[in-house]
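agent: user wants the structure for Lipoprotein from Deinococcus puniceus. delegating to structure tool.
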Amino acid sequence: MKRPLLLLGLAAALASCAPALVGPPTGRIVNTSNGQEGTVSFVAGSLQPRSGAGRLENNVTIQIGEQTYVGRTVIIDTASPVPSPFDLGLQFNFGNTWNGTGDRDPYYGVGGTARTPAPRLVSRTGNLIARTDGNASRTLTCTLTVDAQEHGYGECTDSGGVRYALQF
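agent: tool returned. relaying tokens verbatim.
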């Protein structure tokens, strides 16, 4: 009887780790003028804010048709908690009750509540700059908006002025 419970507990422990084993963020990019779609692949952790000037290696690959762009993202940590409104409640009670002798006793009551809801996090902003290899290299620049779970969207423009929409 102990063995099945032990195996069930082990399976539950492994299942709780499953979200941590998810691969790097991927997404899609779409040419806004002709609808051509491509893919975007980020290195795990590249959509988190950076401290200092380190870690400037390429961390994103974009495939649009036959073109492969490789570049970097930089996310700025501007995600401060939005101040939540202060929740305040105040109560006043007045009335009369009958006591055991048949007389009326007035009563007064004052009550209050004060609480601060949990702060809501806002998204972070950043950019992405990528280019193709070769003599006639093309450049793609994007502005990004990213949440804490590394999901987001952006707008891109290539060196020819073509605009793209980005989701990941």
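agent: one observation worth passing along. The mean pLDDT is 80.
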